[in-house]
Amino acid sequence: MADIVSKQVRSRMMSGIGGKNTKPEIALRKALFAKGVRYRLHDRGLPGRPDIVLQKWNVVIFVHGCFWHRHSGCKYTTTPSTRPEFWQAKFDGNVERDTRNMKRLITAGWRVAIVWECEIKASLSEVSEKLVEWIGDETGEADQRFGFQNHELGV
Ligand SMILES: [Zn+2]
User: Fold this and answer.
1) How far is the CA of 118 from the centre of ligand 1 (A)?
2) Tell me, what's the pLDDT at 42?
3) How far is the C-alpha of 68 from the C-alpha of 90, rounded, in Å?
4) C-alpha angle with apex 21: 18 to 26, nearest 5 degrees?
5) What is the pTM of this model?
6) Ligand 1 geometric centre to CA of 127 (Å)
7) Which of 60, 22, 23 is nearest to 40 (CA)?
8) How far is the CA of 66 from the centre of ligand 1 (A)?
């Protein structure tokens, strides 16, 4: 069994986009649940397999690790000094994929929030409060109001 687990962990690391059910993700889920928000998890049928899906509100939430998803200006967004080209290509691929998934979701009528792990670590209660406010604020104009840049909470 131990070998299987380590294989999974290794393949997760190699896939380059961090994991599901990370500590910050679980913390955010708990905070939302405590505020009465009900959700589904990791919907495989949706682009990017969003971490949290709020069908009722037409909302999907991604909890992004700062390193893998390149949180701009963040102290965790470092680049390893060995094989910089390799890492840069990997990071570029992640960011492109995130952007593509985001556009597809918005086109399909979803409102999309990105929450960075560092924000959850720094101020979970503030982040979850803002998020709940945003969730309840339906406008129907997801693509205009919630463009990629605009809904990185806390930025
Ligand atoms: Zn960050």
Assistant:
1) 4
2) 81
3) 9
4) 125
5) 0.78
6) 13
7) 60
8) 4
CA angle 35/39/45 to nearest 5° reads 160
Per-residue model confidence as pLDDT tens digits over 86-107: 999 999 999 999 999 999 998 8
b/e for 62-97, b at 16 or more Cβ within 10 A? Answer: bbbbbbbbbbeebeebeeeeeeeeeeeebbeebeee
Nearest to 73 by CA among 6, 118, 23, 115: 118
Q: Copy the structure tokens of residue 12.
A: 């997760």
Structural domains of the chain sorted by starting position, each given as residue range(s) with its CATH number in brackets:
19-145 (3.40.960.10)
As a whole number of Å, the end-to-end CA separation of the chain is 42
